[in-house]
């Protein structure tokens, strides 16, 4: 999970490269082993020794027997859910106004499948997974009124178990000749996979309930095949995928053995989470946080990207090799007492700060992606197996630094120790005021009818930052993510119009030589021109180097006094 061979009792989870996304996976495994643990406990007890003092044995989660069922011609009765923050945010951003654009907004994965499968077994496995996770039986519902902010309402209608005919979603392609030739990773194989993915994506129509497509490339009785599984984003987020893939492997394996799939129960189905979140949004303690968010948004200053003119949309990708990325994911944030996501924000603050026009206080509003699984919403029940689009975005202010922060001179990367320390301190202090990952903002902005119109009229973020987390690519085995997945889908959805002026999507790929950090920078409407995007990306990588260099100096000579780098 962390890409290390051994973990000691006193090793810090985050120093070893853990992040909030990996934390959710770890929690799932701990609970599967029969213990009670919450994200809050893990973040407060970061070593195995301290975590062991607070976890408690619990009764093993029940299993549910899932079998494939067909849908009647008349169709089952659906349950319409209240709007959710992710769907309402998609509506507000408009996906630049197009139903057609949102129809193609999907999440794909390519799996290696065992040799010798048959179509009936594949269909039975997928059917069991769809029956297990209610969000996968959803279709999009768009109503012209009813949103908490006075606008349209986007939500899901969920069919009951057995209400989706999985046989209609799965297509088999004979790939025996391809497997016998250059294989799936060759030019012909990649071209075929790309074409299949594009064709499957074109079939999605969330308003009509066409939300899932599966294409099985059958390589025959002796060669592993591939399964392209493509789900509309309205039904799934990145944290959900490991649960879906684990369940699919278990369900197909059981079906192949002539057994019924026995999948671990889902403690909180998506529908229950959506209803609880909608109820919680109206609570008095949530409403009391409105002034905090109003103040944060009011301090934003307009961004006029130097040299001053916006340009056509552009994109640039920067990568840091393992020898540079490893420390940034472990020891560097540990020295500063922050997480990887906060380190990325501090670097962004340094990179953007010098490239704004104007003087004075204020700062740049950034939309920060978070996983959205705050268990206090459901009375601290387990959300680690809840599948759906729970991820959320909340604003964060990259406050402008003081003029004298560079007074002690700049290092080779162009940033002074004082400036680096101050940027880290500002990010750390503000993040401490957002203890729930921004869920309260999502409730106030999209679900509470009293506060939503107020926040809808406030300034909106200019920049979007999404730290996807670490993606492992270990040994290729049956049901692992296929080696071709990264090349095929690294820029998937890149053609979806960007609702932000500048978007930064950061991911880490764990390879045989260590973690490689990649960031894709892209501009949208009113964003910076191509030259400025390149300059900002370069400045961000320099800022990361400056943070690493400062951390090395802090380790040897810790600073003292307020405003120092160490918490």
From TrEMBL:
Keyword Signal: no
Entries under SUPFAM superfamilies matching the protein: ACP-like (SSF47336), CoA-dependent acyltransferases (SSF52777)
Record has Phosphoprotein as a keyword: yes
Any one Pfam family match given in the protein's UniProt record, by short name: Condensation
InterPro entries referenced in this protein's UniProt entry, alphabetically: ACP-like_sf, CAT-like_dom_sf, Condensation_dom, PP-bd_ACP, Ppantetheine_attach_site
Sample GO molecular function, one term: catalytic activity
Biological process according to GO: lipid biosynthetic process
Domain Carrier: 1-59
Protein name per its UniProtKB record: Carrier domain-containing protein
Species of origin: Frankia canadensis
